[in-house]
Amino acid sequence: MGIYQLCYLKMHSGMLFLAGHTEDKEKETLLKALSDVMDAARKAMAGKSFARSPYRAPIAALAAGATAALAYLEQGEREKMREEILTALNAAAK
To answer: Considering the domain 3-93, what is its CATH architecture?
Structure first.
């Protein structure tokens, strides 16, 4: 399994966790999960061959969704956060 696939799987599982727990987890737990997703994105995007990776588009979609979700979490809008996460997961699946 390559580094990009591992990063994608870590990001995807983190986003699935967030999608299922936006309402029932404390803000700190959600921030930690978003941080883990963004760390995996940074690690993937720093790779030398990221531009040629078949995981480039899904990783970028999940990273964009995590960034938007973080903004909504900071504003206290958890439903919009969940919508962004689901949109990113849908985009990554295509």
So the answer is: Up-down Bundle (1.20)
